[in-house]
């Protein structure tokens, strides 16, 4: 895709800024659930397809290639957001609510968490000396020390296990980096373990305020737009499952059809903002933050609104965002092991409202879970080997600036 470390820091700040706006809109006008809106893994494949476009790869200058690629992603997001806006505000998405029974939501919510298994231990294993301590520390603080109250009877280990664990392991990784523990290790190890691997802090500006069309006017391509539309449909299903899980973990009333439709509509507005500002990806309800509702037992919507304000404020401080971007990813992977697993367990918990003595129900659950994991693996094998699906048409699309 090209681009420098400064461009990377700028994209991270823009993503954090727009995520704060989308979270605030969703908490105030959307479903009004304590759910954080952020970047989605569902958009990785269409974004990778756009990055690999031959017309963009022919640009030799890395910065120019980055700018043109970002503008192509912006155009695809702007077009694809229209589907979600129409389906949401027309209440069409609410018509599917009859399929949102406990039997239907169990595999949907379960796969929202379990479908992201490749983001867990496979990534944690890239730096086990950081990832394993993080995983053990999160489990220990949140489950075994949650009743310890060292300060004024405040259960800090129960309420803030993620913040405490990230701070401790991050300092530990900084010490390892400064002591030269990774100086003579392979490049892949340095990339995953070092805290100074990308020069983000030195290249980031002190202040930067993201604004619409900061990368230039978007470019529109039919092929790019259709690829992004498929990701939008996936994120809609993912968000619906996340809303159901959030309401259950927050001990709130399950959102009715019109609330789900309204939330999907505002999420479409959020994807439109992603395209206008140039975040490089679309947005959906953050699955890991839904898991945090169960881990911290804090389900207040006010907390989410305040956190959205913090995201907007700190995204304008370039150095602050760059410091957080320097956190080794295995630390987050250890959190994903706990949080995604918790969301998957919430999906399975919906089965308590169904008759599991029925062979029909067992077949529905088993087939849905198995195919939900197996079918993506089938297409991933084609993508990894030949960068296209099982049917390759060799078709091309015209790009319109």
Automatic annotation (TrEMBL):
Signal peptide as annotated in the record: none
A GO CC term assigned to this protein in UniProt: membrane
Compartments, as annotated in UniProt: Membrane
Highest rank taxon of the organism: Eukaryota
Pfam families: Xan_ur_permease
Topology with respect to the bilayer: Multi-pass membrane protein
Alphabetically ordered keywords of this record: Membrane, Transmembrane, Transmembrane helix
Record-linked InterPro entries: NCS2
Main location: membrane
One annotated GO molecular function: transmembrane transporter activity
Stretches that traverse the bilayer: 12-29, 35-52, 72-93, 99-117, 124-145, 160-182, 303-325, 331-350, 362-379
Family, per entry: Belongs to the nucleobase:cation symporter-2 (NCS2) (TC 2.A.40) family.
Name this protein carries in UniProt: Nucleobase-ascorbate transporter 1-like protein
């Amino acid at each position: 895709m090209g681009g420098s470390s400064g461009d990377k820091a700028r994209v991270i700040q823009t993503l954090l800024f727009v995520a704060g706006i989308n979270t605030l809109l969703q908490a105030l006008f959307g479903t009004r659930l304590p759910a954080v809106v952020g970047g989605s893994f569902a958009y990785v494949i269409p974004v990778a397809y756009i990055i690999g476009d031959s017309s963009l790869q022919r640009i030799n200058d890395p910065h120019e290639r980055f700018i043109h690629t970002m503008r192509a992603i912006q155009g695809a997001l702007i077009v694809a957001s229209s589907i979600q806006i129409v389906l949401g505000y027309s209440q069409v998405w609410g018509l599917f609510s009859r399929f949102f029974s406990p039997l239907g939501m169990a595999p949907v919510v379960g796969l929202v968490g379990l479908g992201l298994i490749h983001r867990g231990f496979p990534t944690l294993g890239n730096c086990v000396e950081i990832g394993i301590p993080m995983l053990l520390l999160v489990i220990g603080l949140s489950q075994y020390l949650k009743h310890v109250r060292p300060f004024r009877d405040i259960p800090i280990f129960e309420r803030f296990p993620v913040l405490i664990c990230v701070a401790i392991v991050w300092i530990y990784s900084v010490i390892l980096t400064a002591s030269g523990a990774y100086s003579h290790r392979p490049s892949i190890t340095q990339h995953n373990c070092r805290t100074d691997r990308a020069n983000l802090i030195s290249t980031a500006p002190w202040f930067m305020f993201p604004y619409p069309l900061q990368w230039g006017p978007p470019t529109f391509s039919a092929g790019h737009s259709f690829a992004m539309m498929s990701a939008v449909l996936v994120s809609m299903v993912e968000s619906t499952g996340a809303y159901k899980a959030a309401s259950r973990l927050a001990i709130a009333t399950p959102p009715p059809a019109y609330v789900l439709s309204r939330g999907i509509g505002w999420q479409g507005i959020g994807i439109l903002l992603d395209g206008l500002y140039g975040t490089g990806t679309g947005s959906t309800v953050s699955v890991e933050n839904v898991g945090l509702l169960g881990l911290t037992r804090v389900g207040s919507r006010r907390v989410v609104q305040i956190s959205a304000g913090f995201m907007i404020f700190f995204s304008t401080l370039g150095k602050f965002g760059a410091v957080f971007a320097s956190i080794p990813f295995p630390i987050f992977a250890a959190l994903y092991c706990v949080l995604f697993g918790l969301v998957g367990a919430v999906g399975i918990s919906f089965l308590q409202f169904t008759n599991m003595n029925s062979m029909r129900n067992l077949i529905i659950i088993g087939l849905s879970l198995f195919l939900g994991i197996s079918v993506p693996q089938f297409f991933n094998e084609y993508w990894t080997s030949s960068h296209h699906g099982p049917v390759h048409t060799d078709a091309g699309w015209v790009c319109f600036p």
